[in-house]
C-alpha cells in the first residue's frame, strides 16, 4: 500500500472553506454503472492490454452513496460512497506477461472496490449549489490472469488510501424538479493520478431522486512492481431519496 506524503495531505486540508447547511438533511441512493474498461496493467516491465488482450466485460456492479448535512458552523458535512466493479473475460495474449508466454489463451477477472469518505462544505445553496471538500478513498483492485487449462497465473494488485480533492455543482430549474450537475474527485502526485468525475440530469419529486448520466474514472497508479493505467467509463442510472 502506498500513501501520500504528509506535506501533500496537509496542503490539501488547508483549502477547506468555512460554511454550513441551513437545515439538517439526509439522503441515500443506489445505482448501476454500465462501465467499459480500457488501458493497460503492468507487472515490472511487462504490460497487458486489458481490453484487446483480455476482453474484460462488465459482470457485476453496485454503487451506493449516502450523505448527511447539518447547520453546525465549522463542522463539515459527510458523504459516503462505495463502488464495486467485477469484470471477467477470455482472450489471447499478444505479448508475454509476467509468468505467461505470448500467444496463450487466458481467462481473466478484475475485482475492483473503492470506499470514499468525503468531508465537504456548502459554498452555495440555492438554485445554484456548490460543494467543496476532501475525500479519503480506500482503493483495492486485483487483476487475475490465468492461462487456460494451466495453473500458470499472474496477479496484479493495487491497494491504496488516497486523499482527493472533491467538488460538486448542481443547477436547479425552479418549479420543475429538474436539475443538471456534476461532481468529481481528483488527485495527482509523484507520477500517479486519479480523475473520477460524472455529469448527470436529475428529476426529483416528493423526496425521490432519479438520476442518469455519464461517469469516467481515469487511474494511473503504481503500487510496488504493479501498475494500473486504465480508464473505466460509461453511462449510469441511480434512484434515491432525500429529506
From TrEMBL:
It comes from the Bacteria. Residues 1-21 form the signal peptide. Keywords: Signal. This is Outer membrane protein.
Amino acid at each position: 500500500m502506498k500513501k501520500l506524503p504528509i506535506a501533500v495531505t496537509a496542503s490539501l486540508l488547508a483549502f477547506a472553506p468555512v460554511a454550513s447547511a441551513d437545515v439538517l438533511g439526509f439522503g441515500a441512493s443506489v445505482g448501476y454503472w454500465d462501465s467499459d474498461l480500457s488501458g493497460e496493467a503492468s507487472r515490472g516491465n511487462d504490460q497487458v492490454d486489458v481490453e484487446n488482450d483480455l476482453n474484460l466485460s462488465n459482470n457485476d456492479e453496485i454503487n451506493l452513496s449516502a450523505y448527511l448535512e447539518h447547520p453546525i458552523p465549522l463542522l463539515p458535512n459527510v458523504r459516503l460512497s462505495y463502488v464495486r466493479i467485477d469484470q471477467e473475460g477470455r482472450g489471447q495474449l499478444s505479448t508475454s506477461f509476467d509468468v505467461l508466454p505470448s500467444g496463450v489463451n487466458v481467462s481473466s477477472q478484475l475485482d475492483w472496490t473503492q470506499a470514499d469518505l468525503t468531508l465537504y462544505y456548502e459554498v452555495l445553496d440555492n438554485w445554484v449549489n456548490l460543494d467543496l471538500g476532501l475525500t479519503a478513498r480506500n482503493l483495492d483492485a486485483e487483476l487475475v490472469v490465468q492461462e487456460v487449462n494451466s495453473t500458470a497465473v499472474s496477479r496484479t494488485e493495487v491497494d491504496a488510501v488516497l486523499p482527493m480533492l472533491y467538488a460538486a455543482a448542481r443547477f436547479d430549474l425552479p418549479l420543475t424538479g429538474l436539475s443538471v450537475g456534476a461532481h468529481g474527485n481528483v488527485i495527482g502526485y509523484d507520477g500517479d493520478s486519479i480523475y473520477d468525475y460524472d455529469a448527470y440530469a436529475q428529476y426529483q419529486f416528493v423526496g425521490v431522486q432519479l438520476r442518469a448520466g455519464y461517469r469516467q474514472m481515469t487511474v494511473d497508479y503504481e503500487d510496488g512492481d504493479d501498475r494500473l493505467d486504465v480508464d473505466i467509463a460509461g453511462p449510469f442510472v441511480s434512484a434515491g431519496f432525500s429529506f
